[in-house]
Amino acid sequence: MKQIKYQDVKNSEEIRTYINRGNESLAFLGYTDHSTAHAAIVAEQAGKILQKLAYDKRQVELAKIAGFMHDIGNCINRVNHAHHGALLARSILKEMGMGFDEIAIIMNAVGEHDEKTGHAMNPVSAALILADKTDVRRNRVQNKISESFDQHDRVNYAVTNAKLNIDSKKQVIHFSIELDETICSMMDYFEIFLERMLMCKRAAEVLGLKFKMTANGNKIC
What is the CATH classification number for the domain harbouring 161? Predict the structure, then answer.
């Protein structure tokens, strides 16, 4: 069995094509960006989370691989995309020569990342969830016509800054956002993202951390 690296996955034409084709479908349906740009941001952030918590290099690498592949199932259908993605990941990584135990870790992380059906089960899946659910930013909005923004578009467009910081000594992971409330209210944000933030709280607990959040300088949790 080969030790597949993040760079192998990131450079795979097959994986990149599936991710970008999935994003094209989502853009047609009015979703925010789920392209390889989002995949790379999630991958790097997931790896950084485990690295800061002193997990071993291979765990960090697996978190980055899972992060890059997590939305691959969108090329099949948005509904159950996490489950479709897990099965696609299995097929691709097996063909690339990854060992079965590592494939299982990736499959689990990809399959558990959606807030409607998923739960953090281990460090890799927890890091992926935290990285994915906190990627909120203006340039994720694919709709260029502000007059036709839906609630997800308005919320993402309203976020002018978002940071995820880890304090390993205090065992805290802190998500802070700055929101332009002339575009969207704090209530609008939480109507969309409350379920995701609760998922982040549980994912942080798997890593032995407390999840804290501030919005426009105000403590939320």
Answer: 1.10.3210.10
